[in-house]
Amino acid sequence: xxxxxxxxxxxxxxxxxxxxxxxxxxxxxxxxxxxxxxxxxxxxxxxxxxxxxxxxxxxxxxxxxxxxxxxxxxxxxxxxxxxxxxxxxxxxxxxxxxxxxxxxxxxxxxxxxxxxxxxxxxxxxxxxxxxxxxxxxxxxxxxxxxx
Length: 147
Description:
The protein is an alpha+beta fold and 147 residues long. Helices cover 20% and strands 29% of the residues. The strands form 3 sheets. Strands 1-2-3 form a 3-stranded antiparallel beta sheet, covered by helices on one side. A two-stranded antiparallel ribbon has the order 4-7. A hairpin with a 5-residue loop joins strand 2 and strand 3 (51-55). The protein is elongated and about 70 Å long. It starts with a helix and ends in a 9-residue tail after the last helix.
């Protein structure tokens, strides 16, 4: 879905950047009210370290698990609204009521369950407990044993 949105935006003339993070928000002040409004972002290319400004009439916070950190760049006092969770996915139900998913991916199958509370990271990794839990559960559905 993200790729489809990006390709559509590019077709309409949008400048695109990947491997980029927001360093700070750019703001303008309304001369009549003195109210500040976000009008863009200072960004950093994480591969080169080069920084650049992106200006816009409308800024949309579509940063997934980084939602709250971007919101706090605008206002440090706002409460967090995003609870990060680690996604681990098998189809079927097991002992504790969670759903197990089997998802086809390229020439393999991904197995897992989802939604364990976690901290925000750009590179999430499953815990040893998550891995062992999934392996034990998929053994109920697959043969020979998965290792």
